[in-house]
Amino acid sequence: MAVTDEAIEKIKEMIVSGALRPGDRLPKESELAAELGLSRNSLREAVRALSLIRILDVRQGDGTYVTSLDPQLLLEAMSFVVDFHRDDTVLEFLAVRRILEPAATAMAAGLIEDAQLDALAAQLDALGPDPSVEELVACDLEFHRGIVQSAGNSVLCSLLDGLSGPTTRARVWRGLTQEDAVARTLHEHRAILAALRDRDAEAARSWATVHIASVEQWLRSTL
Questions:
Q1: Alpha carbon distance 179, 215 (integer Å)
Q2: Burial group, residue 125, by CB count within 10 angstroms (0-12, 13-18, 19+)
Q3: Beta-carbon neighbour count of residue 157 at 10 Å?
Q4: What are residue 57's DSSP bridge partners?
Q5: H/E segment holding residue 3
Q6: Which of 70, 89, 148, 216 could potentially form a cystine with 94 if both were Cys, beta carbons 3.0 to 4.6 Å apart?
């Protein structure tokens, strides 16, 4: 094992074991290096690596702290990696969304509040019957984010937030090139919303699946 990897593992073990908790300040570099049996250089590299993935927060002139370890914060690293996707992997991102988003939508059916449903309906009404593709895609992102947030699972919400970015361009292209894409998307949004109002988890799951699968099907036919 490379010395930096060993240093990362030792810091990770301190966090996992509870020796370091969210918000804790790490001991001084010289003290921690001696405690873990590491060189200060390898410790410094480990701290730099762990700060990049939001495990540690290096505050200039103040010290190094364990972050909140909040799922949304930690999953920012995944979003960074996702930004480097290639066009030929968009289908794979859509396939993962098709697994996760219908499940989140079904979960939301029993938890979403009437005020949130009214806000989603108002959002759709504001679009009107003939929005631009860009307006529709922006609304689509907010519509699904609002539903997933209501599912009450911050990890699932963060995962889907990170996965939605790579599929945005596919949705724009579909709106520009497929004749009925805008009308179909609006219809599917209304159907999802109606299922949520009825507190019908399975109908909500089914419509969310149809909604994502239609983009996936179009993309397969164009690649």
A1: 13
A2: exposed
A3: 20
A4: 65
A5: helix 3-17
A6: 216
